[in-house]
Amino acid sequence: MQRWIPGETRELHARWKRMALQVWRKSLYLDRVVRWDELIYSEIPRAMEFVQSQGGRIDIKRMPAEMDEVSKRRMSKLLRKHAAVFKLTYKHHRTQEWIELRDFMQEIMEAERQAIRDRDEKLSVSIVKKILMMCKDRRAPVAPVKNLSKECAFPIDFDGFLRRYPEDFRLAGGSRMVELVSWDQSLAVTDRERAVEAGRTQRILGPWAFVSTFPKKFEADKIFWEEFDKFQRLPMPSPYEDPGNSADPSSLSGEKRLLAVFHELLSLTIEKRASLAKFKGFKQELRLPEYSDALLASHPRFFYVSESNSRQMAFLREAYRENDRESIHGPAKGGVQGAAGEKALCI
Predict the structure, then answer these.
(1) What integer pLDDT is reported at residue 330 of this predicted model?
(2) Are residues 40 and 152 in the same domain?
C-alpha cells in the first residue's frame, strides 16, 4: 500500500508519525467482516440470481450451452459449496443433480425486498441531500450516488425516487447529474460534531476532535500525546462548507478536513463501512485525493482499511467494538497518558 505523503506545511514530529504507523495493524475481526460481505452480498446473490434465471432449479450436469467450460465449473463449484442455501437433489440414479433455492432463502430474499420498500423514503432524501451538500456546486453524477444503494438502503427505483422529490432534487445533463434544489441548514451537522456534543470526546480537545481508538494497553511517550492532542485540537473547515473555498489539501488542516469528509460519508451508511471504490465517482466533486486508502490507513485511530480479497473496505473504527481495542480520548491539559489513562469503550 502506498503511504499517504504529507504536505510540506506539516510540523508533526517524525516520532509521532512512526508511532502512528505502528498502531495501524491488521484486524482479523474486520478482515473477517469483509470476507462475509463478499460471501453474503456478492458470491451467494450471484449464484441465486443464476438459479432463478433458470426457472428456480437447474441440473448441474447440464448447464446452459451458452456458458463456456470454465464458467460452468465455477458456477457448479459455487452451487455445491453453499449447501445451506441451495438444496441438492439426485435423480435417475445420480445421472441428474438438481439445484434449487431452499424455502427459507426465498423468504429471506422477499423479507429484504420488503424491508427496503417499507423504509421511510425521507431518510434516503436526507442522505442524498447531505451528500450533495458536501459536493462542489451542490451537484454530483447520478451513477455513483445510485451505486451506494446497498450501503445506504436507497429505494430500489432510485431514478424514480429522485423524480418524486422535485422540491429537493433536480436532474440535469440528460438525467446524468443530480442537483440540490434547496439547502437544508438542519442537515449541515456532521456525525463527528454530534459525537462531540454527546461527550464522546474530551471537551478540552475542542469542537474539532474525532472519536479515537487504540489497542488495549497502548502506551506512548509525552511527545506522542502532545502531537496527538495538537492534531485533535486543530481547527478545520466543515465538510458542508464550500469545497471550492476549503483549506489546501496538502496542509494539515486540509488533510483533517478530508478525514472529516470520509468520516461523514461512512457515517451515512447503514453499517458504517463501504468500499473505497464506491467514492471514486465523487473524487472531483468532493476533492478526494488519489490515494484515499493511504490517507485513511495513516490515521488508524479513526479508520481501518481492509484489503481482504483485493477489496479496499474502509471502516469507521468508532462503530466497531473489538475485544482488543478501546477508545482513548487523549491526555488531559497536555499531560502524559498511557495505558492507565482515561478510557471508555468505543461505542
Answers:
(1) 46
(2) no
